[in-house]
Design a protein that fits this description.
This protein has 354 residues and is an all-beta fold. Strands 10, 11, 12, 13, 14 and 15 form a 6-stranded mixed β-sheet that branches. Strands 16, 17, 18, 19 and 20 form a 5-stranded antiparallel β-sheet that branches. Strands 1-23-22-21 form a 4-stranded antiparallel β-sheet. It has 2 helices and 23 strands.
């Protein structure tokens, strides 16, 4: 494994690209953790999580303004997804949160995964669009049961999910779409008294990154198959000090000469209630290289963060000390990473190859 000085990719801060709009009630508690994509007009858009009072989240749309090819600010263009379905609204909570978008040319679609914060807590859901504005919900994700794993993933909260941009050959030899996810084993958050019970066959009980597969032919026959995930397997767990509590995937993996580049976050500190806004945690950005042909194999990863909470905007906010990468886009041949800053603002960093 590689230290940040040895790893083939580095992150360099550019600045803040989006802050809450004064007087906008939909952004009273922050703008953060955006998805991204190119619209039919060729423009670059962010789809940020907008948090209203009471921690009620929606997904907005904002065109990125460039200065000399560098993202500098945004122009808001409204809300494209809000908690409207029963499974997105609880008795005392609601939200559509932390979208990730992968543009998949093989389908001709933008595919969004997001967290539906409904009556049973955070669950992964899927939606699709052709233009980033109109989204068709495919519903909450279901997980095919595998008796070899001995675990029903449908029992657990799940977040930090994102699709790969192109088909891969799954372990069973079938051309498939791959997707990353991060189950959490805290059944006590669903049913009091059940406690934190991780599946007995897991190599690590801490929240970790998993990978699943969906046969491409099945999706072409029925796009709703994007919400039925098969072949689930453990991919990577916490290994280093900046990942002591848990890890989770970030933006869609990127094809690179070494294989697949996956930015992820690692968490340290103390979590008191997984569904509450934390105050005693530290989120930092690391990276992995997954095998180009077998993306369920990690071939390299950073032993320390590529980016940690160091600036005032990253250290002070709704949840202090957070760097949370969620989107990567290429502008004039340069890759830019958009990330949440202390659950309050959105920053941008340049991704460079050494």
């Amino acid at each position: 494994m590689s230290t940040p000085d040895e790893f083939p990719y580095v992150l360099q801060r550019i600045g803040v690209v989006m802050t809450p709009e004064d007087g906008n009630p939909l952004e009273a508690e922050g703008v953060l953790n955006p998805a991204s994509g190119r619209g039919p007009d060729g423009e670059l858009y962010l789809l940020p999580r907008l948090v209203a009072e009471g921690n009620i989240s929606r997904v907005g749309l904002a065109r990125v303004n460039l200065v000399d090819g560098v993202p500098q600010s945004v122009t808001r263009e409204g809300v494209v997804l809000e908690p409207e379905r029963e499974w997105e609204i609880g008795a005392n909570n609601a939200g559509v949160e932390d979208p990730r978008i992968t543009t998949i040319p093989a389908l001709g679609l933008h595919v969004m995964t997001y967290v539906a914060f409904g009556p049973l807590g955070p669950r992964t859901a899927v939606a699709v669009s052709e233009d980033l504005r109109d989204w068709r919900r495919l519903g909450p994700v279901t997980f095919e049961y595998d008796d070899d794993l001995g675990v029903d993933l449908g029992l657990y909260h799940n977040k930090d999910t994102v699709f790969f941009p192109e088909p891969v050959i799954a372990p069973d030899g079938v051309e498939s779409l791959a997707v990353l996810h991060r189950p959490v084993w805290e059944l006590g958050e669903v049913r009091p008294g059940e406690g934190n019970r991780s599946p007995a066959r897991l190599p690590d009980p801490r929240p970790s990154i998993w990978i699943a597969f969906i046969p491409l032919a099945a999706v072409r026959d029925d796009v709703r198959e994007l919400a039925r995930w098969r072949g689930n397997r453990f991919l990577a767990g916490p290994e280093y000090s900046y990942e002591e509590l848990k890890i989770g995937g970030g933006p869609a993996p990127r094809r690179v000469p070494e294989g697949w580049l996956l930015l992820h976050h690692g968490v340290t500190g103390v979590i008191t209630n997984s569904m509450a806004q934390q105050q005693n945690v530290n989120y930092a950005a690391g990276a992995m290289i997954l095998d180009g042909d077998e993306p369920w194999r990690v071939i390299d990863r950073t032993t320390a963060p590529l980016l940690s909470a160091e600036t005032a905007d990253e250290r002070s906010g709704t949840v202090p000390n957070v760097v949370f990468p969620t989107a990567i886009e290429t502008v004039e041949g340069v890759d830019y990473v958009f990330y949440g800053m202390a659950d309050s603002k959105i920053g941008v960093a340049r991704l460079d190859r050494r």
